[in-house]
Amino acid sequence: MSVFAKITRRDFLRQAGVGTGALVFGCHISPQGLFAEGLLGEQALNPFVAIVPVHGTIIISSHRSEMGQGIRSSLAAVLADELEADWGRVVVRPADADGPRYALDNKFYIPVVVPDYRKFIIWDKFSQFTDSSRSMALYYLPMRLFGAGIRLVLLRAAASKFGGVDLGECEARRHKVVHTPTGRALDYGDLRLLLEAQEQTQKGKVQPTQDEVTPWLKPSKKWHFIGNKDTMPFVDAHDMVTGKAVYGADADPQVPGMLTASIERCPVANGRLVSFDPTAALAVPGVRKVLAVLPPGASGGGVGTAFLPHAGVAVLADNTWAAIRGRRALKPKIEWDLRPAGFPLQNADYQSDAYRLELHESTGSPGMKLRSRGDVDAVFAQAPPVVERCYYVPHLAQAPMEPPAAIARFANGRWEIWAPTQSPDITQKWVGQIVLGVPPEEWLDLKVDTITKIREKVTVHVTLLGGGFGRKSKPDYVVEAALLATQNPGVPIRVQWTREDDIKFSYYNAVSHQYLKAAVDGEGKATALLWRSAFTSFFATVYPPPDFAGTDEKKRENLKRARAEALQDDLGYGAGGEYPHGSRIEFAQGLEDMPFDVKNLRIENCEAKSHIRVGWMRSVANIYHAFAICSFADELAVEARCDSKEYLLGLIGPGGPLDLKAEGVEHFDNNGFPVEPLWRLTPDGQPVRGPDGQPIPVLFGYPPDSRRLRAVVERVARNAGWDDKVKQYKAVPNGRGLGIAAHRSFLSYVAMVFDVSLGEPKGPNQLRELTIHDVYAVIDCGIAVNPDRVKAQLEGGIVYGLSLALLGEITVKDGKVEQNNFDDYPVLRIHQMPKNISIDIMEPPDPDKAIPTGVGEPPVPPVAPALANAIVAAGGPRIREVPFYRAVQVL
Amino acid sequence: MSKFQLHVNGEPLTVIVDDPNMPLLWVLRDVLGLKGTKFGCGVAQCGACTVHLDGRATRSCAVGVGVAALSKITTIEGLSRDGSHPVQKAWVKLGVPQCGFCQPGQIMTAAALLAANPDPDDALIDSAMRGNICRCGTYPRIREAIHQAAAAARLSS
């Protein structure tokens, strides 16, 4: 992820003097191996697993952040399943930031050199970046291999201890190795067993490689937890219902004298602090200090500055309430520079209304061509009947339930951080480079010794997250705490954001405008499709646009070079676009991979300049792309007087893998995963074949495949009783209707049907009241490792999608966000819920070969279009913009 | 500095605060260290800070410590000693929490609802729970868990 830094696994290993190759047990984590630091302490078996000898407790590090998706339970249970660990003797422990430790260099877990794997996979960089719905997709197989590998080592050690018996006579069962003919057993904690394992592995005789371990993976019928909704553990449930769970604001740094900071921030992106008068704030009882977060005159966070905080002044107090009161007194006493001299953007002139027109205009003329087949222009030139539509989605704020909070302490030249962050390793990097004063032009490409220094000096402990949704991928609030801690050596500083701070200083999901035009034949079938998408790319926030370096020639050169290098990088997150265009990541989220089988097609991206921080929110660009294309499909069906589901299936066609390359998409980001499998090769470049004669994949391929999209559509229609209900609702028109939408995102396929009704027009605007009776959802996520959490993510994703569709809108006036709190940025409440939600998860054809794909985000994109389509079917208006509450009455 | 006598989770306590209008939420979290009660909005919009005042579900961010001193205060830490309240048990059984942050508030509201109405229907649940936001969207399970807790409580009484 070169946009954030270049801490590569190679660098780390080189520095640590550690070689690669062994799959498990000791030598990777410590060159001295097991027991290097004593006999009875906790012994690291590999980066993820430790065991306490004698006692036998297995400790599994949870390196991905827990924010409600259940990953702390799921990944640990996958490993424990393969290890045959007794779950009652497993402890799951949150990992500190230590990206390289958890990175899965292919050379490490797949000991085969694949020269170009880096094109696709980011796991040698920020391994803890819990984002893009890919924890399970990335770590499912590695966790299984780790578990099975340790089991194999223990089996071999036990076979030796049992007197050199045949390995086939030994079996691992519930934390023991059993010699089945005699019933003799050795517990996993047994010192004799562990010392023998140590002896064997350190001699290098039995360091299991992936090839050796693979045949030892358990067949699916022997899984205890994987895929089982009844046995899969939920490690945090008890703490969560008793109030014991520790979130960002709850962490205890175990040092007395903590001060709480509330920060008044510059309301306009990239604005600067001029001066402030602390007197009034200091007069508030309990207030101790008033401090600038960044020095007056310094560049404040905003567009192009990634995770640098907004300019701000902090009130530090004995308790949160005093900090908030002090801040109220301080607010009128701050002078901001909202139009810093020499800064290339006039953010203080940013108006949502005017900007919407700007985006509309941008899509009015050809943009950058992303994908094309056939000849769209030739078809349109024949003046066929056309359907032309525009769709609009405003900025949206993630609004996680816990507003951002973080604790930092600076002592003895080191920073210790407690933070609810989705990106522990990126947080470490950002805190380090800011507090150590690394010049901005180096941020994109940190030197190795800087990285080493940061890793030595900054420790990040990760708490539970009270929701993330992408907001907590951006560590600006942690950097604030660190900057204040630097100014108060020895004192823990807790930065507590208010809800207003959270709403006003989000990294907003892009504002977007979509233009679609289709030519249709006599039967209403689309013969040509033109799609222009304009959205404010988050890359304008995380990469400085080139003119941001001002007039300093050296800075401009450095920035240009770093940016060019980053653009060369084929890794997903190096795929930043050329400002003011979007990035490959955003293009790949429902735009380039548009699944419909239309003979002539052109997809374009149009310019959109940024004037506020843009980030990502649960499902990101899929939100506006799915809303547009799935609504447009339904509009074509309506124009053709065709059943919406049948028309959708007709657009998808028989289906198959999309050949995007053939249509001009050079680099399809695919959520950072390869489209085609990478095959294991012999030294002379021939595929290695397994016993069955088939080539062996090193990495699986995840092609966008419209057959799978078709399958979820057919299934959801069946579950919803589509055909019968459509007939029934049409026979007696009473304001009830069905809508359907389907979308692939984060490698998974989701289809939804909404069943809604509309009441009689009421009120001054004569709006009809919307009732959502049923929502049917089907997901194909490869394999549901934790089926109950998959179901929960779908339920929650539907709620999240409904919040944004019905109610979501952030507007900006004079560069300042207008919304404040849940009263003017409402989200869905329980009484607004659909009456019934029905979730169905596609079973994999072969669970042993199935590979899981994304679950957290994929349920969100189809919600808005399926609902909009249902509203039309119920006799309501066609809604082409979010939020819907302006067009229908929301309870 | 102001001094108040509070009655929290069955115990009488004396607190000294720098502002007599400090909301109960911050007294609980910052003065008493009872961090199970959460800060979500500060304006009684989200319900994350819900506690019981004499058994009634109350947003602690919007009640001054002086007013709270007039009532018996129960927080999530005091709802049961060990998570054995029927609502907590139903919450675990149905896997209600996702991120879990809003759940202490949800549970306190639900417990107060069931204390007043042992067998609420969906409409009653909606009207009692609509002040509690869950961004993860656990609403369907909250509804189901309240029904289940109600049934369990009826069985055991």
Question: Can you tell me about this structure?
Answer:
The complex is a heterodimer of chains A (891) and B (157). Chain A has 891 residues and is α+β, with helices and mostly antiparallel strands. Chain A contains 25 helices and 29 strands. In chain A, the strands form eight sheets. In chain A, strands 10-11-8-18-15-16-17 form a seven-stranded mixed sheet. In chain A, helix 13 (424-435) packs across helix 15 and helix 20 (621-639) packs across helix 21. Chain B has helices spanning 24-31, 65-68, 76-79, 86-93, 103-116, 122-129, 139-156; strands at 2-8, 11-17, 50-53, 56-59, 72-74. In chain B, a hairpin with a 2-residue loop joins strand 1 (2-8) and strand 2. The termini of chain B are far apart. Classes of the chains: A alpha+beta (891), B alpha+beta (157).
Q: Write down how many β-strands of chain A occur, each being a DSSP E stretch of 2 or more residues.
A: 29
Q: What's the gyration radius of chain A in Å?
A: 28 Å
Oligomer: heterodimer
* Unreliable runs of chain A: 1-32, 106-124, 570-574
N- to C-terminal separation of chain B? 46 Å
- The portion of residues forming beta strands of chain B comes to 15-25%
Number of strands of chain B: 5
Q: H/E order of the elements of chain B?
A: EEHEEHEHHHHH
